[in-house]
Amino acid sequence: MKRAILFLLTCALIAATASAQSPSKTASKKKRYTGAMPPGVMAAMHDVSDARIKADIRFLSSDLLEGRGTGARGGDIAARYIATQFELAGLKPAGDKGGFLQQVPMIGVTTSPESTLSIIAPNGTMRLKQLDECVIMDETQKPQSDVNADVLFVGYGITAPEYNWDDYAGVDVKGKVLLMLVNEPPSDDESFFKGKALTYYGRWTYKYEHAAKMGAAGVILIHKTEMASYGWDVVRSSWSGERSYLRGNQEPKLSLAAWIQLNVARKMLADAGKDVDQLMKSAQQRGFKAIPLPFKVQAHIVNEVRPFDSFNVIGKLEGADPKLRDEAVVISAHYDHLGIRPEMKGDNIYNGALDNASGTAMLMEMARAAAAASAKPKRSIFFTAVTGEEQGLLGSEYLGQHPPIPDASISLNLNFDSIAPLGIPKEVSASGYERTTFSSIFEKTAADFGMNIQPPAHPESGGYYRSDHFSFARVGVPAFSLNTGGRFEGHAEDWVKERQKQYETSYHQPSDQFQEDGDYRADGVMSRFGLALAWQAADLPTLVQWRHGDEFEPQRKAAEGQQ
Fold first, then answer.
1. Which of 147, 185, 322, 516 could form a disulfide with 299 if both were Cys (CB 3.0 to 4.6 A apart)?
2. Predicted local confidence at residue 6, as pLDDT
């Protein structure tokens, strides 16, 4: 069996290489850069091949890699393929034991079908159906957890002193199950939870983390599409199957981490004499107080627990300046997706072509082009393909905690995630760039590439806190992700919107598959743009910083103080 797998893999690699070397209509037109740039980066930019990016996306998103699940065979094959490409490009290994792989210790937890969630209300018992009405998980990494607890409605579940907001004020939540809303209090005032833009307080990860630290036994999030920014099908696909956690993490964890559909919450609360819409309205008011609910939650969760190791892949392009080469810029992309979901009927391979074979292929191509350039940047550049993004940014979290050089010596992180093949972009989107001292260089480089800067299309989705750059920001490194905007050469905006809508529909679904007829010049342009930015950051006289007053500035100062 192993020989058969290796044979198929070899055939796929040969096919990918042949495709990359053959002429491609998507490589026929390259976006010209009109600004001044050192010869080394100019050579690297012009060496970027749209065809190689396309070939790598085809391979990484093929059924052979089985959806690149974290800790699964397909994910491990992807990691080793990326490491091989880094080595062939000429990067220096920057992982463990002199290799390209950084071992990330994890533990996988799969909720068994026999697990149950019941609501014991005055008028009877509701037994919720897993995946259809609820999704339940146990974060404690134990084989079994039982919860029998009173329930409190805690609004948005937020404690934010800087906004004079505390949904936990005056209430003891230890041992209780907390019913709460996703998102955060709505506002158009940018001084209050940043107005329409979602902050980290609105993310489900914050709500679980904070409730666990407060001693709660469990959290049940009420799902509403407009508030979560994605439908129930995304919840079902993303939180079913095996969920992974960093092994050895001593942070408090919930025995019950759950989502329920809005209509289920409506019925559950109505049976207890409560109205969900009134509760939501009350939660939006400053001074909201947690409300005890007249029912109990009973959960019996049986888990299949599997310790395993996954891998980040780290390659280094060493800087040319003896005084600055120990500092670096980091370019990142996550290579994992959702793998295979046996419980799903029909096509159950989550190939993840857009999310994120695209960013991974671009990362490898940037590494090839940069390593082949005759001149090198002053600081080093690390190319990092991280695991476990779909499991909660785990690989980048581990990398931030175990970086190849101290976090205070990392000038900037540029992250690439889900770049759609829609042709030559006329706009670039990079939420968070304006929070850094690199902003003027970013704006000038975008203009030199003929791209306007598009503000976040959906600030309410909290995109800044949903991709791997956030893990770098949390340890103080200035960081943001790069993507295209909504306008492309030769295409009407309605055409672009229709295709972007199709990508949104395929998010975390088996339909996110390789598109042979995609226009991968978009990925090529963004790769050249990324190289130009990274090279300039690497050549700056001083390290990039957060702007004064930014929420991550204290972490930067703390990291510098630890050096």
1. 147
2. 41
The conformation of residue 355, written as its DSSP 8-state character, comes to I
Separation of alpha carbons 29 and 315, rounded Å: 29
Spell 80-106 as b/e; 16+ CB within 10 A means b: ebbbebbeebebbbbbeeeebbbebeb
Run of H or E residues at 61: none
Distance (Å, whole) CA 546 – CA 433: 10
Query: CA-CA distance, 290 to 78, in Å (whole number)?
Result: 47
pTM over 0.85: yes
Enumerate the H helices of 239-379 as residue ranges.
Answer: 262-271, 276-283, 359-372
- CA–CA dist 498, 486 (Å, integer): 11
Gap between the Cα atoms of 217 and 157, Å rounded: 14
C-alpha span between 441 and 69 (Å, rounded): 37
Structure confidence at residue 456 (pLDDT):
78
- CA geometry: angle 36, 37, 40, nearest 5 deg: 150
Nearest Cα neighbor of 153 from 128, 132, 172, 180 is 180
**Where are the strands (E) in 421-537, listed by range?**
427-429, 452-453, 479-484
d(CA 236, CA 547): 39
Give the domain ranges of the chain: 39-106+308-562, 109-305
Count of residues making up the chain: 563
Q: How far apart are CA 491 and CA 493, in angstroms?
A: 6
- Three-class DSSP category at 187: coil
Structure tokens at 560: 């510098």
The CA angle 460-462-468, to the nearest 5 degrees, is 160
**Tokens 């476990």 belong to residue:** 388
CATH assignment of 39-106+308-562, given 3.40.630.10, 3.40.50.880, 3.40.50.2300, 3.20.20.210?
A: 3.40.630.10
- Report domain 109-305's class: alpha beta
Q: Quote the radius of gyration of the chain (alpha carbons, Å).
A: 24
Q: Which residues contact 547 (CB under 8 A, 6 or more apart)?
A: 434, 435, 436, 437, 439, 553
List the one residue out of 52, 254, 215, 184 whose CA is nearest residue 460.
Answer: 184
One DSSP character per residue, 433-450 reads GGGBTTHHHHHHHHHHTT
Angle at the Cα of 102 from the Cα atoms of 99 and 108, rounded to 5 degrees: 140
Beta bridge partners of 313: 101, 385
Residue in this structure with the two tokens 């509760």, named with its chain if needed: 279
